[in-house]
């Protein structure tokens, strides 16, 4: 997926979040996002985009506290959020292929465009689920979001960031995410961590359904019964309990 598509998706889902958030009380709790008030979630999103842009331009800086973010008055959120997304897009475009800092070692600046796109997509879903607005995500973006999250989980650094991620190690247990189109993601829990491939095949548990639903189940925004589960449902539940994005 090229940078133009990533940037288009970031703009789309930033705007979608802003539109959904405008329909709710800014102090209402968001059940799918550690019950933060909507105001904090909006602040986190704009803060994260600006933080990522600063990393691309200037190098690493401490992870900001979402509780410190100030999105301003609700009527200004849309403009403020769009400005943050545009700032990140501009920073990545200016950086080109220059390696920049990431949690996982130096990578091209597009790492942050992709990471923020998928984080924003899930938070757009949070706001839409909260307010009852329709949420859609293009199949190509949903598929890339699943792949990107698996790349994060498979990196050895990830287990050191959160004890829950270390519990994803296993002895060969397998999970398969099977979309309506394409082979899907075959995940293996090994003693050294998570491994995954893009293929068909059998697994200890298979989750099947539209790729958009698989993404939202995989990030615990929709319940497991939203997709078809075949095999060891307890294995799927164990995985999901430790991997919410």
TrEMBL record:
Domain MDMPI C-terminal: 140-237
Coiled coil segments of this chain: none
Pfam families reported for this sequence: MDMPI_C, MDMPI_N
GO terms for MF: metal ion binding
Ranges where the Mycothiol-dependent maleylpyruvate isomerase metal-binding domain occurs: 11-128
One CC-aspect GO term: plasma membrane
Signal peptide feature range: none
InterPro entries from the UniProt entry: DinB/YfiT-like, Maleyloyr_isom, MDMPI_C-term_domain, MDMPI_metal-binding
Classification via SUPFAM superfamilies: DinB/YfiT-like putative metalloenzymes (SSF109854)
Name listed for the protein in its UniProt record: Mycothiol-dependent maleylpyruvate isomerase metal-binding domain-containing protein
Organism whose genome encodes this protein: Amycolatopsis vancoresmycina DSM 44592
